[in-house]
Amino acid sequence: MDPQLKENGDVSHDDDNNHVYKKLKLSPYISDSEILEEFSHHEPGVARINNGSFGSCPASIIAAQKQWQFRFLQQPDDFYFNQLKKGILESRTLIKDLINADDVEEVSIVDNATTAVAIVLQQICWAFIEGRFQRGDAVVMLHYAYGAVKKSIQAYVSRAGACVIEVQLPFPVRSNEEIIVEFRKALEKGKSNGRKVRFAVIDHITSMPSVVIPVKELVKICRDEGVDQVLVDAAHSIGSVEVDVKDIGADFYTSNLHKWLFCPPSVAFLYCRKSSTFSDLHHPVVSHEYGNGLAVESAWIGTRDYSSQLVVPSVLDFFNRFEGGIEGVRKRNHDAVIKMGEMLAKAWGTHLGSPADMCPSMVMVGLPAILGISGEEDTLKLRAHLRNNFGIEVPIYYRTPKEDETKSRDKNDCITGYARISHQIYNREDEYYKFRDAINQLVRNGFTCKILLPN
């Protein structure tokens, strides 16, 4: 047999039992070895099961970013006058198609979702200051809103005279209906004493704990109840769940592109549905583009590095190397993180924080109660202990136990700590087994968070 044929082809036989060589069909999609190469810059030996916090960027996208950076350094004037606006418009156009917006003018590119939230809240703040909204009117947000969003509401809206109502969500959560019931309660509270609910901030995916929120249903409730404007804070959504801004129906929608869409940090989009308030939106950093529309204002806020905003075409080319493109990667990550989450919960005798259909590419997994996680400080100490002693990077959430749980005779049944595991294409199953074994070792050794020194 020809060794070359043997190496490059399959051997079969015809009806006369003669050897027939068939050329192997090469896959057009990215291979496992190529994925490893794309993320070979990650620190070796670390189980990085925390893509949700900072995202990840493949080597080929980093190379594309460096090309954009070099273009600027090579000839800044040509870059500014002939390349920058054209490149950002191309990125905005691709994002517009990706999220099913009607018009590219509805899409602005900003540094991150926190910046996008500030842009919207700045407009809400002025509505209170200028008397379009009355002092004491309500603003509604989820109790699990991201910390920076809560602080932004405090900085912009509370100071302007708004009454802030928090939706008290359950956790663990078992159904969308539980969330919808609590959201309706918050709106009713907001409308009490003759107040109007002027604004609502709804997460698409809460950060800690991580849960996919039924945003379409909540936005519709806001419309039915006369809420003036709705912002969906979807920092984790693009690349992790389906995004269709027309179907969701919110006035504003923002998502980071560096968390689950492989862009380098930091870059996000802000979708603003055309309305009477469209022209009132401005970037917090005022440049000479002020007054030319938010998208134009955001495209130039002074001399800085815009390369992360310009690599969107390269990122979408990267996704096309995977079977099914973005949808294929989303399914791959979701299925894998559910599988690994269920494996960990079974190994530790605990449970997941929500059903599989309410999980994105992240899952909350209960940690053994015997670890004694009794507050936020314990979560930080345990996280640092796992990082420094086991090479595992994973965030941990503290859940305040209910009153009936604190009275239980068996304290080991009261789970107060949950690990938020992520799955991105670079993750391997052995990283989750490493986490499993580390927690099991701590349990066997009688470890509790009390023995850890403060960070």
Automatic annotation (TrEMBL):
<feature type="domain" description="Aminotransferase class V">
    <location>
        <begin position="83"/>
        <end position="275"/>
    </location>
</feature>
<dbReference type="InterPro" id="IPR000192">
    <property type="entry name" value="Aminotrans_V_dom"/>
</dbReference>
<dbReference type="InterPro" id="IPR015421">
    <property type="entry name" value="PyrdxlP-dep_Trfase_major"/>
</dbReference>
<protein>
    <recommendedName>
        <fullName>Aminotransferase class V domain-containing protein</fullName>
    </recommendedName>
</protein>
<dbReference type="InterPro" id="IPR015424">
    <property type="entry name" value="PyrdxlP-dep_Trfase"/>
</dbReference>
<dbReference type="Pfam" id="PF00266">
    <property type="entry name" value="Aminotran_5"/>
</dbReference>
<keyword id="KW-0663">Pyridoxal phosphate</keyword>
